[in-house]
Amino acid sequence: VEEFMDQMHDVMAKAKDGPGVLLESAQSQVEEIQKKLEAALADPSSVAGGAGCVASWYGGEVAKKLQSFSDETKGLVSTVQKMAADVKKPMKELAEGLQKSVQQLEGSAKSLAKLPKLIQQELEGKDSPDDIAQINTEPMKKALAVGDLDGPLSAIGGMKGLLDGAIAMLRNGVAALEEFLQTAPATVRSAFDL
Questions:
Q1: Residue 81 to residue 85: CA distance in whole angstroms
Q2: Band of the pLDDT at 16, cuts 50, 70, 90?
Q3: What is the reported pTM?
Q4: DSSP secondary structure letter of residue 144
Q5: Which of 17-43 are b and which e, b meaning 16 or more Cβ less than 10 Å from the residue's Cβ?
Q6: Which one of 73, 77, 85, 187 is least enclosed by Cβ atoms within 10 Å?
Q7: Rounded to whole angstroms, how far apart are CA atoms 118 and 95?
């Protein structure tokens, strides 16, 4: 019972944190790429590596090609920002729902966990039917009066919908990031091919 409750607390903490840290990291990395692109676009000759009008012309041609990549990067930043905002609400609702359900379950679970010890204490030293008839069952009845377990457990099961929506949003965002990461190197290299 305690192990189950510990696991519920772990899930609650993870839901409260949400995927925000990972999304913020991805967003900052994409923004860093965007800054480097903007610097190259602002000074096209910086990518040419030479001097004179040929370098300036080459830098301008590279900058033209990098502009579409820059636009794609801006779109990806926007996608990650939207995904972070969209996932925040269901993760917050999940954390709040889990917290409420766990609080309701904790009292009942702790009472049930004490039951074997209570039974053992009452049976200790009793070996005749007359002794067994004198067992005080009130503490055991209190331990069994666990209240509503079905409500909190059903509420936890109902949170699947919140997770499904958040997972779908994250999968779409991760797919966009994966595609960007797979195509970015070739796109940047091709900008330098004339």
A1: 6
A2: low
A3: 0.55
A4: H
A5: ebbeeebeebbeebbebbeebeebbee
A6: 85
A7: 34
Angle at CA of residue 57, ends 71 and 193, nearest 5°: 60
What long-range pairs does 70-77 form, CB within 8 A, spacing at least 24?
A: 70/34, 70/37, 70/38, 70/41, 72/180, 72/187, 73/30, 73/33, 73/34, 73/37, 73/180, 74/34, 76/30, 76/176, 76/177, 76/180, 77/27, 77/30, 77/31, 77/34
Tell me which amino acid residue 92 is.
Answer: K
Residue 7 is which amino acid? Q
Q: Are 80 and 27 in contact (CB under 8 A)?
A: yes
Least confident segment among 39-48, 67-76, 90-99, 148-157: 39-48
Q: Which residues contact 187 (CB under 8 A, 6 or more apart)?
A: 69, 72
User: How far is the C-alpha of 56 from the C-alpha of 43, rounded, in Å?
Assistant: 9
